[in-house]
Queue: 2 jobs
Job 1
Amino acid sequence: MTYSSITGLPCTVAPVGFTDTGLPVGIQTLGPYLEDDTTIHFAELLEKVTRGYTEPPGYRI
């Protein structure tokens, strides 16, 4: 459990890239009470700037 989830506020995590060593990096956005759409919309906008999720080299499901 994180501090943000204890507050009951909506949050969304979005991938934003990779470190120099290939580890994934993400950002967590926290929104106002009952404004789930706000954090989801922000993640959509962020995806357009960062190209969203891309599979790391050598990763297969």
Note: DSSP finds two helices and two strands in the chain.
Job 2
Amino acid sequence: MLSRLAELYPVETTAHTAYMLQIGVTAVKEKARELGLEKLAKSRWLERAGHISRHFDNRSYAEMAGDLGVSRTTVSRMARKLGLSRSKAKGYAMSSRVRNELVRRERRRAVFGLDPLTRLKVISHRAKVRIRSRLKANGYITGVHRNILYFTEATCRKARLEAKATRLGLSFLPFPEDNTPLSNAI
């Protein structure tokens, strides 16, 4: 029985080992402790540890947790066990990067007319930004003053869309012939 215990305990679950030896789980644990047996690291844990150590420098705990399908706390504990740690500056840079990505994602959702996923206020006037984006897609050009849109001879003008945009505070001018600095920012 002891040889079978030494064979099964490191690689199988304690419950399965107890079932195979036809003794209780507590008895298996006590005998294993007496014999000095320890569990081997599971392959899933090793895979996760490898992923964490590879991506520790350029991904946040939450992003790694999403990749692995575990909680952020689990990733944090595994990183601590692996001896990985971040300096304060790296932690701040990571938080800043994640926050910027979140704001960018929310801004895109607003431009495409989707409901926000978070409570971040990324734009001041959603309808105005949305209609400006649609007009830009139709060939209008945004000026330095973001409330002015320019049209060229090639622009297919949309009267109803322009009227709606005018009500929201946008104005339309023909494209200037001189080299006036223009911006194409949303």
Note: The chain has nine helices and three strands.
